Amino acid sequence: MKTAIVTGGTSGIGLGVAKMLISKGYYVYVTYVGFDFTEKIENFEAIKVDQTKREELYQFIAYVKQQTNHIDCIVCNAGMTIRKSFTETTDADWDMMMEVAVNSHYILIRELYSFIPEGSRILFTGSQMGLMPHAMVLSYGVTKSAVHAL
Fold it and tell me: Counting CB atoms within 10 angstroms of each CB, which of 24, 52, 101, 137 has the fewest?
């Protein structure tokens, strides 16, 4: 069976992508944060991971490595925004947004690289905001610009 990871995979685009991958024969591990995800879906495992915390990300990576010897698709979908003006955005706000959208995905791929066979797929969820950010979500736009570069 093919194996996939979808970050931010319990709602919106992430959940839609996860369900599409399941319909194509994948077993899908998804990360999420927030309220407990209780929907039961075959070939789907939702794991609560706060991607602002590297130790939780590394625990997730170790878990996946114990469960499978290959990852055929990684969908880097998780992201976050804090709606503040440019001058009100704190260092902590900036760091959290970069950690989720950019750093955690870079680490995920780097640490699982030897598990990714030739012909596999790595996808990132970008945003028009990565091309034309505005003042109330400038930090989010910058994270999406970095995602586009990855």
Answer: 24
